Amino acid sequence: LSAGAKMGCFTFIKVMMILFNLAIFLSGGTLLGVGIWVKVDGESFLKIFGTLSSSILQVVNVAYLLIVIGAILLVIGFLGCYGAQKESKCLLMMFFSVVLIIFIAEVAAAVVALVFTGLAETLLTGLVTPLLKEKYGVDEAFTQIWNVTMTEVHCCGLNNYTDFNNSYFYDTHHAYPRQCSGYHHSCHPHPCGCPVQGCFKQILEEIRTNAGVAGGVAAGIAALEIAAMAVSMYLYCRLDEK
Predict the structure, then answer these.
(1) How many angstroms separate the Cα of 134 from the Cα of each of 62, 67, 127, 188?
(2) What is the pTM of this model?
(3) Which family does it belong to (predicted)?
């Protein structure tokens, strides 16, 4: 390619990098703003989007999730957009490094999810089951989030109904949560006859059922991240030539 063609290609990629990261930056700012709004004024959020969320705890969790994702997108968008605009090798390298770290973390999480599913279940059981025994029926927000989860996913407890054995809720009401479908005294002697499974197994089933969609989305995100890293490194290297 001639020098003019190379410069034209560099300029085009630079503009695309700026626009792409500007969109990421604006998206991050929007998510961050919504997250802060939800955190500060969750009741108004519930009034407007009541059908999308039926518990305060869900809204709080969504708020933190939006704030974290929004902040990450803001940082990535700023580094990519401003770095390309100012042709800053330092900012472009920082952009590359941040995206690379996120990419590696996603790959590691995927490997752990595939290889150590049993370990994840053991760890979750050790952490969540004691909370179910102590807080379900005591903490209103905690109880509500589990009620919504068990209702929507059609599950009972993390592993199964036995997570509620010797719990505050069972000791107080002498029954299992209504979402556990028949997990009462008559069912207790014959737990295998009870249809509802634990939420962990049900969620895994949902993930396996929609593995194609989830895999496609993950592959698309990974492709975007690889493309972003490649473009940032191209601009970084071309700045040396300039």
Answers:
(1) 24, 29, 12, 21
(2) 0.59
(3) Belongs to the tetraspanin (TM4SF) family.
Distance CA 151, CA 153 (A): 6
The two structure tokens encoding residue 51: 């059908």
| Series of mean pLDDT values for 10-residue runs along the chain (242 residues) | 67 87 89 82 59 45 80 91 88 92 86 70 76 88 83 83 89 86 49 64 72 75 88 85 63
Q: What pLDDT does 55 receive?
A: 45
Identify residue 102 by its one-letter amino acid code.
Answer: I
Q: What is the pLDDT of residue 66?
A: 81
Q: How many CA atoms does the CB half-sphere of 54 hold within 13 Å?
A: 11
- Cα→Cα distances 150→21, 164, 178, 197, 231, Å: 39, 13, 10, 10, 45
Contact assessment for residue 180 and residue 134, using Cβ atoms and an 8 Å cutoff: no
Q: State the CB neighbour count (10 A cutoff) for residue 203.
A: 14
Helices 3-40 and 56-85 pack at an angle, to 10 degrees, of: 160
